[in-house]
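Practice problem: predict the structure.
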Amino acid sequence: MEQRIEELRQLAHDKNIRDVRKLYQYAKLEIRDVTQAMATKALESSVARQVLAPPPRYQGHFASSR
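Answer:
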């Protein structure tokens, strides 16, 4: 299992992937027997995903002050 996670980290680095869903999609094609939990564990140490995350979308709602 640790070998698969290292392969996922390498794939994420090679393809510059920072999203768990995208990594999982690529991994299903290139690396067999991969779960989404493994993809999450492979990217959990990546801080670029948090820093470069887009701001929350405006949904047309405001919080009331009262």
